[in-house]
Fold these 3 entries.
Entry 1:
Amino acid sequence: MTNVLFDGLLKGTDPNTKFAQMPDGRVYRYQDVFDVSARFANVLVERGVKPGDRVAAQVPKSIEAIMLYLACVRAGAVFLPLNTAYTTPEVQYFLEDATPTLFVCDPASQDDYQALTDKLGIHLDTLGVWKNEAESAGSLSDSGLASSTQFETAPTKDDDLAAILYTSGTTGRSKGAMLTHDNLLSNAKTLKSYWQFTDQDVLLHALPIFHTHGLFVATNVVLISGASQIFLPGFAADTIIENLPNSTVLMGVPTFYTRLLDDDRFNKDLVEHMRLFISGSAPLLAETHTQFEARTGHRILERYGMTETNMNTSNPYDDERRAGTVGFPLPGVTIRIVDAETAKPLPRGEVGMIEVRGPNVFTGYWQMLEKTNEEFRDDGFFITGDMGLCDEHGYIQIVGRSKDLIISGGYNIYPKEVELILDEQEGVLESAVIGVPHADFGEGVVGILVPQPNAQLDVDLIMKNLQSQLARFKQPKQMIVVNELPRNTMGKVQKNLLRERYAEILQ
Ligand code: MCA
Ligand code: AMP
């Protein structure tokens, strides 16, 4: 028996091929991928991790973090990556909910987590950025160095879990999307062929690796293609510009592209060697698409996905890439646009709920059966919460969301989570959190506060209090104090009116 995901991604790969080029000149080959993932898998087993156990990780971006993901896959464990911006209280929720056997954190955060993991009975290891053999990159790395490069990879079935990725929810409580070996493998295969990846490709990797985009779309597609990547710690226009001449593909959120367009050095000559620019995670403005083509001669390929579904649609590789659309359903994926209430399919051109079914779609939310049932139709379609239409040429357009969600620079923020914390602040009667246009991040978070009668709100203190409770990207960029919130006759806060009223506030 094979390990569906590991063997599916790596079987037959030439171990001598380059896997990653680091900014400091270090090179990882596919042989290192086999060796280091085996070493880490041995450590997982030593720590008592068994097939089906969760391994949570909040670690800085590094190739070793990718090896930890592959080690989990090889050990039959379930990888649970966490945003490095999450604060200790945010992480506590995930550890309590997912009950991992092992939590791996940044060596710099060990003191913040030791008492918590001791209390929860979770083993704690650390993993930092590996520099050289003389400097420790954390306890997992040290133990890995002392372990064998041989590991008997655990056999798995298509529907065994490979990962749980948490996505915030409209109730303020995050939900763990359970992704199987086949969910991830089938999507990697489809994307490789749809985007025509080969072992000649060099991906410029500047995304974080705790989300679907940087982890599964970018890394799995590189692995299954036997391609290589230039592996950057994050997005910085300077390093992107420096490395573009040696790359063939860039994957990014729209902010990557607007920031590059703001830089005069970004021009046709620089991207001569590039084959493809891909955008996703948030809407790409048609204006950015047009400017990009005028500047570089390339048309950005926009695609659409979700944590729960991996990638659903993509603009075509060879045919026309249409600005303002997310293209066609990927092979094997069925998309339908329905009336949100009745689930009746709508005619072409009409706006409705986007629903999706296919091998890419997750199996449900971790220990939330009711929530899972609410978000699936009886015939297996997943209700995305995105509103869209299918145009006369079959291209899908996303026109809005039925879920109360803000997407800022490609990160999702559910207003309810922020509102619950704002409502607890001294002197606050109630609050509303909205997303308004932001030139750099697409949308930016604004908090609107209503004080209790006769209370004087200390907005600076409230902002300070948020710092220890909420990741920085979720914190409002601006806070406004008002006497009351606009409500409809049902008593529901009219966020559309607030978004109109404050549309210019972050410009
Ligand atoms: C950083 N800040 C942000 C964001 N990023 N605030 C709001 N939204 C953000 N996205 C904060 C910083 O903490 C800082 O706060 C201030 O804003 C300015 O930060 P800056 O240095 O300019 O930001 P950066 O470090 O350059 O990061 C911007 C970024 C990054 C490169 C766009 O956010 C990023 O890599 N985003 C990609 C997210 C992603 O991969 N999403 C995929 C999700 P201060 O200065 O006050 O401390 S997966 C997904 O959505 C689905 C499946 C899909 O379809 O792909
Ligand atoms: P996440 O929960 O982080 O996986 O984010 C998924 C959401 O991002 C989707 O439900 C969409 O609302 C949004 N999204 C992803 N790609 C695109 C895109 N190309 N255009 C518009 N929205 C997108």
Entry 2:
Amino acid sequence: MVIFKKTQDIKEYISSVQAGGTKYGFVPTMGALHNGHLSLIQEARKGGQAVICSIFVNPTQFNDKKDLEKYPITTDADIELLTRAGCDVLFLPSVDEIYPGGTEETPTFDFGYLDTILEGAKRPGHFKGVGQVVSRLLDIVNPDKLYLGQKDYQQCMVLTKLMELTRRTKMKVVICPTTREADGLAMSSRNRRLTDPQRIVAGVIYQCLVSIQTKKESGSFAIVRKECEDLLTAKGFATEYVALADARDLTLLDEYNKDIPMVALIAAKIGEIRLIDNILL
Ligand code: PAF
């Protein structure tokens, strides 16, 4: 695996390899890699593509300073994992490489409705930062495909919209299934901050999503939402939302609508750790 820290160096390298006909799949990350990230690398390797991964803890997407300060940094272990997973190129930039003119001077995008609900409402400025950094990374690495995890469902929608807003019509977004622990907990870099007792109950988020999915045939979402909120509270979570939405555009729904594809989404905090997850219905 070739590692680059400088924007100019990776740009030159990638364009010279692309000139020889190589296609690139890109997996952007903030490091602290786990099997969920590695599944994206595996997916990106399919079809003989080369894979670029970036590790950059983007300060502009953290609405909570404490969350940024505590974000796990495990670069040596990440390099080891990426090498073993068959990643071809790693971009490890500094903040100055990504935002040479400062964060204020780097373009941001308006995601409209998508930035006003759920994660957008709970984490003001978060998607502005995500759009800003991903657009910048795409300018630098210029991949053919962008690989994202379904765990961050709303982020996938925001970044699909980014492609539209920035007229990257040829760049394909590939959304890969969520990788889960044995008890259903969605893999996330934040999981490593859970204490043992918190980790034991954390699988309840997935149990709630499955019960929302199961009851779609005969139940009322209003009732199952209340059951989920009560269960989360009983297990020590502070629930931020248990929501149901149209999977195509995230229009929020009060009740099940079997005529459309739906997605159920949960965000809840246990102690200081905020977890999110979703399931398609
Ligand atoms: O999902 C993440 O890890 C981040 O939001 C991303 C897409 C790497 C942008 O910083």
Entry 3:
Amino acid sequence: MARPALIVHGGAGPVPEAERGLRQAAVERARDAGWSAISRGALAAAVAAVRHMEDEPLLNAGIGACLNSDGEVELDAGVMEGANLRAGGAACLRDVRHPIDLAVAVMEDGRHVLLAAAGASRFAREHGVQMADPSIFITDRKRQELMQGADTVGAVARDGEGRLAVAVSTGGVKGKLPGRIGDSPIPGAGLYVDDRFGGVCGTGLGEAFIRLGLARLMVVELQHGMDAASVAQGAIDHLTKTLKAPGGAIVIPREGSPCAAFNTPAMPWAMAE
Ligand code: GLY
């Protein structure tokens, strides 16, 4: 038997002072939603936490995500299981109500790891994933236009069987070019998990996470025996020194407590174990 654990973050970024408490409370609600699902397994817990955050208008995922350079929302999400290295991602979504649900459907289908844009929407419809009018993702255009940074939401869970899972969802970077895909749906970049070593996910400038292969690197460090706190902090130091990029990371090792690190003014996070 393993000790269950869950860690959830609501994005690393230059969060306005007035919003910090509200974002922290949103992340704690997501932690509670995820923790209440832990008896159904690590995947259920991580997905429940992220799905909750896709409904929180102050977080950059789902409802309330940041806008691209055309003033529209394009969403990415990814999920991975550490037992068998199954992974699924969906990107450039405009009309999928819960991008994390589509990432799970892609993973469970198993033919591909990442679907994008119109093909992803078609797959969603064919697999009974809830669709939405793109306008529902714009809850406060003025606020969404002013959002800064490249925050993301994510969760890592470990269940009582020692299985690990990671889920991530994002609106990406404010003002991004239409069609841009970040790190969040890409295993090895924005998320990675292997039950033998641990699970991680990132938040911050996706281009930097992709260029560094940062999530995979973190799990390799766990594999080599580095402790989770050093892995999280080391990844953020690498991000800062090598590419001067903003970001954060959360980690759950195979055994032991969750950890978080970030180089931005704030990153709301919460955990349970
Ligand atoms: N980390 C979120 C993104 O860059 O898309």
